[in-house]
Amino acid sequence: MNIAKKILLGYGLLLILVFIHLVYSLSSLDQMDSINAAITRVNQPLYELTGGLAENLMGQEFYSQRLLILKNHESFELLQMKFGDFDNLLKEIGSIKSPFASVRELYAKCAAFRIVLSENYGSLNEALALSKQERDLVGKKREELIDVVKQLGVEVRRDQNSKIELSEAIGTRAYRVLAIFGIGSVLMAVGITFFFARSIARAVGQLKLSTRQIADSKFDEVRSLERADEFGDVSRSISEMARKIEHLEKLFLATNPLTLLPGGLAIDDTLKTRLGAGVPTAVCIIDLDNFKVFNDRYGYARGNEVIQTTAMIITVTVKELGATDDFTGHIGGDDFIVVTSPERYEDICKTIIRSFDEKILSFYDKEDRQRGAIAGINRKGAEVVFPLMTISIAVVTDQGGSIKEPHILSRRAAELKEHVKSMPGSVYAVDKRSFSEEGGKV
Q1: Do residues 134 and 193 both lie within one domain?
Q2: For the CA atoms of the chain, what is the radius of gyration?
Q3: Phi and psi dihedrals of 272, rounded to 5?
Q4: Pick from 130, 36, 1: which is nearest to 76 by CA?
Q5: Is 378 helix (H, G, I), strand (E, B) or coil?
Q6: Residues contacting 58, CB < 8 A, separation 6+
Q7: How many helices (H) and strands (E) are present in the chain, helices listed first?
Q8: pLDDT band, very low/low/confident/very high, at 15 (cuts 50, 70, 90)
Q9: pTM above 0.85, yes or no
Q10: Which domain holds residue 126?
Q11: Do both 39 and 78 map to the same domain?
Q12: What order do you get walking across the sheet with 327-332 strand by strand?
């Protein structure tokens, strides 16, 4: 056997190994891509929608109780809006091609529950005429439906984790096969095989690392491969999946349990994103005046109702007058935040003030409403008379893009809020001071 034949035989065997390797690699990549596509197209949307459906059902309960207390047309319309959102969520869930049998069960139970709602809440008069037994029956069915939704969410998340583990296992197996192939190829053709195996091993190693980082919730460490091949596609799919999972976890952790509005983490993320992208921004810090003395007099339960009503007023106003990317958050206690654009904050602030002043009187007893004030104890321990609650809004803008750091806006808003709270009545004020790039006043 001459050298040429040896070379041909060696490269022939190498080509066979390469062909076998390519088939296995493409098969593994196809499996991983299919798994990640299933997570992105089924598990992710379904998990988000079930979470939204659970929130909607709890919101229905809240607005049902509010309708029972206030017995007005506005409360009934807000409840109907929740029913409409419920229908939309149900349609979206039905549009997902899901392998879960429990989705069909949920869809059937939701459809049956919607019929119950239509029969009992078809009109304001019908809703108000419901007996306690009928309301309890609707509430029981709603609780049962919430349990089904939560169980489905757990099932979807468990299935998603299983898929992630399967993807990692496929990557691990592929890595081991590639390692063996690399050793054999080095013996046959050191130069070519070395570089080829090294490239593939790095790609598979990065995919394996990415899936492990997602499983360990180390989302910030996940990196995409800058490659225009299947490895790059899978890597980008994994990175996109990591961003979505991280976003969902942040929203869940940052949501205020009383108002279901996003809190600190979501607020910081929103401000950083808008300011970093150069989007014109107006930050409205909203605070209730004399809320503590109201809470001391009427108790935390009624105080919580005031907080929830304020959150509803702000949310509805921003939804009606704001843009789709506007943000409403609950800083904590009686402090809220609205992030909008400079051309919208004026209408939003005026509408919030008007709606708050109209609704807040209903939370006071008749004597206090007629007197226009309530007695309370100030910080020095002396008894004084406090006015009825008002709302103060401090508005700070990004000065045409000159402010890039959220803490600068936050500091200016805090300074302005103290000034606004010293003003009588429900008011809003805008910080019109100019500001330099370094954060110093001009």
Answers
A1: yes
A2: 30
A3: -60, -40
A4: 130
A5: coil
A6: 146, 260
A7: 14, 7
A8: confident
A9: no
A10: 3-250
A11: yes
A12: 327-332, 335-340, 282-289, 390-397, 427-431
